[in-house]
Structures are given as C-alpha cells and as structure tokens.
Design brief:
Largest sheet: 12 strands, mixed
Strand content: 15-25%
Shape: globular
Number of strands: 14
Number of helices: 13
Length: 349
C-alpha cells in the first residue's frame, strides 16, 4: 500500500540499475518501491556486506497477482488485510520466531489475529504503519472546510480532489464517511451506502493517484487541493515547502493501517538471510530510520519508546483522539467485492 519516496521515473531506473549491480543474490525482497532503504536494515548490511536484491510492486493486489502467477522471492511486504489471501493460496510458510529475538517487542495490537498467528505458527511479522487521512493545501482550503469527510463530495471542490487508486484506502474513506468504523463485518446496507457515497465523491475526483509522487506534483501545482492519502507524501511535501497540512481528526474519523513481512514457501534464496533481514528490520535503529525517511511508526513498541513525542507529532503519527477505522484483515470475499465495485465506480458505472 505504500510507495514511499517522491522519486521520478529516472531515479527509479537508476535505483534498479544500482541494485542489480550491488545486491545480495541470496535474498530477494518483494517490496513497495522506496523501501530499498539501508536505514531500515543496517544490521543486515553490516552482517552481509550489501543490500538484498529488491523487486518492487505498486499495490497489494498487483503483488499478490504476480506471486500467484509464479514470481519467486524470499520475503514480501503485504499490508495486514492481504495476509489471509497469501495463506489461502498456499504461498507462505510460518516464521520460526525462535530465530527472531525481538518478536516479543512487537505490540500485541499488531499480532492479535489468528490470521497472523495460530496453532500452525506465526505467519506474519508486522513492521510499519501510519494513517490515511486528509491532506489539504492550506493556502487554498480553510481548516474548517476539512472538518468533515463530506468535503470530498462538496461541489465547491469539483475537479480539485484526489483519491487513492487502491481498494483498501478508498473504501476506508467511503465507509467512514457513511458512519462505519469497523470494516470486519460490513452489512449489505452499509456496503450500498458507502458505494453510493463513493459515486458522489467520484464526480469530484480529478484523478486517482497511484503513488505519492504523482499526488505531490498535483498538489504542488494547485491542480489538487484536497486528497485522501498517507503520512509519507505529506511529510515530503512539507520538506519541500509546499503549504500542506494533514487533517487526522475530521468528524467521521480516519484510517490507520500496518504492513509487515511474509516468508515464502519454497523460496529460492537463503533462509538464514531471510531471518537476518527481518531481525534487522526489528532492530531499534530501524524505528528511527523509518520515521525519518518515511514518516511511519514501527511495530516494535520498545524501539518506539526511544523516539521523543515531539518527533512523532512533527510526523503526524502521534496518537489522536478520534474515530479510527483500522485496516485489519477482512473476509477475502468482501474485499474482492469492494475491488469489483471500485473498478465499476472508476469506470463511471
């Protein structure tokens, strides 16, 4: 779900070339573009002398489709709602947490699902998370105008808003806007109401953004003044001096999410290095690198205690008082239904 760095296509091409030249052939990581950042896995590089080989995806559905069609990697970085699909498809195997010394430092709220851990073992290692909320141009939009998610259907902003081009984030918005903050048991009536609201919002959409770099360009030029987005794009826009704020307490609430790593069955590389990788990710230094480079929080609660609250506030990841829709795992059939409906809405139906 998270294309995290505002990078041009040229930079991506250069990054691929560099990684192909200087990457560890014994470990292939299938990840969101931008996560090939040494600050996240310093201990891996210290032990193995180089970064792993990376292959990238742009969204969770693309990633799942690719591995379902035979792409081979050692580990991948899906968000929580996708883990059941990987399990059902028989693509992953449990992690041996006896080889992951800091597993116990991961917050229980990230682990309390039988989809992630059951009698068969631990299937998922949560690592990173943040919010999906309302970014807005403070020069062109007043704070009181984004006090409600209904701003996305306000005709005054027709052609000036942007929504994510992915199922999970866009449906989290539609459900919140229609009064649903728990998406684990959505009724037919709630689904219909959210879909109807999303059709209204669709009429205002200038474009559905595929990655934060695309959205950043739209917000820099003023083409888009309000967007439903993640922390990282907002943080980068602020660093560039763009007048943007992140509204995380609208009346109806916002979403939060987390992602982590799965261990592929019959993986081509080194199992030992897969554990080197995940242990490096859980190292306390990774939490600082994650916040500074991505604006995200780490799932290792003990590591997060080392980071001052003022730094969390500056990154808009400090705790908030307000309604939250947590993007935890949902029934794959419901998620498929959401995906199909979203594609129809984008097509104008």
């Amino acid at each position: 779900m998270r294309l995290t760095h505002l990078i041009s296509s040229t930079a991506i091409a250069l990054s691929f070339a560099t990684l192909a030249h200087a990457a560890d052939p014994d470990l292939t990581v299938f990840d969101w573009a931008g996560f090939e950042n040494q600050a996240l896995i310093e201990a891996y590089v210290a032990k193995n002398g180089q970064m792993p080989t990376y292959s990238f995806f742009g969204d969770d559905d693309e990633a799942f489709q690719k591995v379902s069609n035979g792409f081979k990697a050692d580990v991948a970085h899906p968000c929580a709602q996708m883990v059941q699909k990987y399990r059902d498809a028989g693509l992953i195997e449990p992690w041996d947490v006896s080889k992951i010394p800091l597993y116990g430092e991961i917050g229980e709220r990230y682990k309390n699902s039988k989809i992630f851990a059951d009698e068969g073992g631990v299937w998922y290692i949560p690592t990173d998370g943040a919010y999906t909320a309302v970014a807005y141009n403070t020069d062109l939009v007043k704070a009181d105008q984004v006090a409600s998610l209904q701003v996305f259907t306000d005709p005054a902003f027709a052609g000036k808003i942007s929504l994510p081009d992915n199922t999970d984030d866009t449906w989290s918005l539609a459900l919140l806007a229609t009064g649903v903050s728990d998406w684990t048991n959505v009724t037919d009536e709630q689904f219909a109401a959210a879909a109807a609201w999303l059709r209204l919002a669709h009429a205002n959409v200038r474009t559905y953004w595929a990655d934060p770099s695309e959205l950043a360009q739209l917000m820099k030029t003023g083409e888009v003044v309000i967007a439903w987005t993640w922390n990282d794009g907002v943080a980068n826009l602020k660093r560039e001096g763009v007048p943007v704020a992140f509204q995380r307490t609208p009346k109806e609430g916002v979403a939060n999410w987390f992602c982590g790593y799965v261990n592929f069955k019959d993986a081509p590389g080194s199992e030992e290095k897969a554990y080197d990788f995940i242990n490096a990710w859980l190292d306390h230094g990774s939490a600082k690198g994650l916040l500074e480079n991505f604006g995200y929080v780490h799932a290792n609660d003990v590591a997060m205690k080392d980071i001052p609250m003022e730094e969390l506030k500056a990154a808009d990841v400090d705790p908030i008082d307000g309604t939250l829709l947590s993007q935890v795992p949902i029934d794959p059939a419901m998620r498929d239904r959401m995906t199909q409906e979203f594609e129809m809405i984008k097509s104008g139906f």
